[in-house]
Amino acid sequence: MSLSVTKAVEALVRSAAEAAFPEECCGFLLGPTPEDFEVLGRPVVVEAVRPLPNGWESGERTRRYQIDPKLLAKVEEELSGSGRSIVGFYHSHPGVPAWPSPFDLLRAWPCYSYWIVSVMEGKTAGSRSWMRSEDGESFIEEAVEVA
Question: For 49-96, what is each residue's pLDDT tens digit?
């Protein structure tokens, strides 16, 4: 299980996370649509990211993020027929490790990668990626490979 990203993609996500601090940032991970998208543990390749506004209420953005479903539908429509799709999501965890919270688990969808970037005192302090288990009860870590 792996999430493969370019150095440029990694730099964009880290920059977004630092710029949003002390709030959470969020966005889409875009890449080729895997033929076996529904198979847990299949490799995921990220070619680009789409930064998004954090749609959560302003007072809660330090520990929550929300993506407008209209933006999700718009990007899926843009990518339709291109061989690319939304393969996951990224968000930051200000002041805490890159470990998914119980809230993250409640909102996670199957098949997608969830790349979390930890930001401590305004600087990125590591990242980890996760996929929701088939039963929805936990996350399974996937390696992040920067090419």
Answer: 999 999 988 778 899 999 999 999 999 999 999 999 999 999 999 999
For residue 78, the SS3 value is helix
Q: Which of 53, 60, 55 is nearest to 22 (CA)?
A: 60
**Among candidates 109, 107, 99, 101, which has minimal Cα distance to 76?**
109
Query: Which residue blocks in the chain are alpha helix, DSSP H?
Result: 7-20, 69-79, 102-107
pTM equals 0.94
Instruction: Output the furthest CA–CA distance in the chain (Å, rounded).
Output: 42
CA nearest 88: which of 142, 126, 138, 136?
A: 142
